[in-house]
Amino acid sequence: MTAPLPQGATIGILGGGQLGRMLAMAAARLGYRTVVLDPAEDSPAAQVANGFIHAAYDDTPALKKLLQQCDVITYEFENVPVATALSLSEEMSVFPPPEALEAAQDRLAEKIFLNTAGISTAPFLSVDNDDDLARGLERFSGGVLKTRRMGYDGKGQRVFRSADAGAHEGVFSEMGGVPLILEALVPFRREISVIAARAADGSTAIYDPAENEHRDGILHRSTVPAHVDAGTLAAAKQAAIDILGSLHYVGVLGVEFFVLDNGKVLVNEIAPRVHNSGHWTEAACTVCQFEQHIRAVAGLPLGDTGRHSDCVMENLIGDEVLRAPELLREPHLMLHLYGKTEIRPGRKMGHFTRLTRS
Ligand code: AMP
What we know:
The chain has helices spanning about 20-30, 60-70, 80-90, 100-105, 105-115, 130-140, 170-175, 230-245, 280-285, 290-300, 325, and strands at about 10-15, 35-40, 50-55, 70-75, 125, 145, 155-160, 180-185, 190-200, 205, 210-215, 220-225, 250-260, 265-270, 310-315, 335, 350-355. The chain is an alpha+beta fold and about 350 residues long. It comes from Nitratireductor aquibiodomus RA22.
């Protein structure tokens, strides 16, 4: 086991969004410095980090500079190129391991990895032309067609409620002519997620599962505890532990699940990073997901995941952020704004967590 990072050491963060911002704030609280690398000029994380490298993820001189300034590297964005993570990992520890990025970036590779690890998912098949799609729609009596790469918040998806004749025609090119995956439409009762962490010594820490509601494909609300029975909670937590072990993971991982009528869980997707559905931990737990991730990558012991309150977290999307003054007046409510000055529809501007019972 390697020694923990000493005080004043620097953690490099690939990606400068709000997740990076909250990681940088947690790192500062533990006495670490951070340097953020992001292609966007005004990134929320750069506002609070000690250093900022404004560059593309594959900019070799910029990556060299990052290596010179840092002692360990992590990321807040799962579409960092795997080649970048691999080349950095030749020089310095990169956590979570680049293999986790690889598994999460391609929905087909992700499902194959999960099924090989003994974890259930929706039935799926790969789609590389309209004929593949026709066969899949027939087999699953409809389905959800997704781009294999770069999809998030429901982007790059199309739902087919049945296998109507001709429904497949021209769809492959309409979806951009890129590799696709068709998943069976899961008649889920609820969606839950688990935020889990693993340290380099193999110890794990898991938060209580949250129940998630989406609007327009974007997470709207996470409620804890989730309205599912103890068997379902245990199955979801066990699946998360199995995934962490299979990936020799170090850091925080988000796992999203569908809960079926019979209480069984299917993994929808994994995110090798801190996760929006774990923001509630900031207000309702002693050690939040951001600190937990920093602890893991810095080689510190993982923290207590105990929850002192029930809670509901809601995202503030677009002009919902204008509710901030009114939310600030509420007791038992923690507001977090991301420092984004331009309001755009669909843009995550902040979130709040309302403590509902302690
Ligand atoms: P994703 O980008 O894969 O997380 O999908 C966004 C949302 O679409 C999920 O949170 C679900 O609400 C819905 N969804 C995705 N895949 C399926 C599926 N196979 N069956 C039913 N609903 C799905």
